[in-house]
Amino acid sequence: MTFAFRIAATDGAARSGELTTPHGVVRTPAFMPVGTQGAMKGVHWRDVKASGADIVLGNTYHLMLRPGAERIAGLGGLHKFANWPYPILTDSGGFQVMSLSELRKIDHNGVTFRSHLDGAMVALTPERAIEIQNLLGADIAMQLDECIRLPQERTELERAMRLSLTWAERCKRAFETDAEAGSVGRALFGIVQGGDDRELRAASARALVDIGFAGYAIGGLAVGEPQHVMLAMIEAVAPLLPAERPRYLMGVGTPDDLLAAVARGIDMFDCVLPTRNGRHGLVYTRFGTINLRNARHADDPRPLDAESHCPAARDYARAYLHHLVKANEILGAMLLSEVNLYYYQGLMAGVRAAVAAGALAEFSAATKEGWERGDLPIHRHI
Q: How many Cα atoms within 13 Å fall on the side-chain side of residue 354?
């Protein structure tokens, strides 16, 4: 099945449509739950799919260290290994260049990591990043890039952006020489860098378009900058990217971030927040966020949301969920992570329907009104 992107409807800058990949169709705008090590923390794959997810994300850096890309390939690829027969996007390991800065050395050729597992030195070049993602069998592979924290000096932003462009060219050459990747319809995305500098972002976007990719990501955001800066960078970059190609905002974000970015033309997202926050007792609902650690839930017999499609949100008392969280029971983390995945996928489904109806602004306003109204007191009905 050849990779393709089709836009079915637009509403201002927002788009809804679908990606076709070797392992199925992805409805866009799409939120990709993060399964870093070939697993969704605390959530079974069947529940990930039941939540409405069409595609998930895996991490090149972690999987190359354990259990190893060659081993996964020998066992039939990541889809078979993890028993997730649907689309997978793999990031390239570029984010670890930033997050593991104490353990790495970077130069023109690539990155040398000191493994956080055993201290062994591991080289990750653009060519090796593509090789690993091809061994994993990713439907969508990402170029290797350098992501740096904000704020940062402009000279450093430009250096990282130029290096990422050089790596983008090398990644594309490596991808195109892999006959199997091309024959099965996999795709390679380029990544726009440039920090919070509009000129650097624009230069990066134009250069990547000249190189030519199946899709384009905006990287290096949600790394410490305020939301208005992130949105300004999207506004600077999105109009420069080909309208017929998917746009992916990496590592973002909160429900509010998603609504704002969709309105500016973004088609794909990923973030660890649904499962990470679920493990810490925080859930996303149509009433806003609810912290199950709070004592006020201890005697509350109501479910989180009686109208939710999520069994965990609908069928368990808040008092029980509060108990699980306070007792550090694994089931609590599992159930609350499931609640969050369902909420995110439900939000994306609502966004897609709203764009198709030309009513994204109304949908976003109604959604935010629900958040602002907040959770209802115990003596009132949901």
A: 21
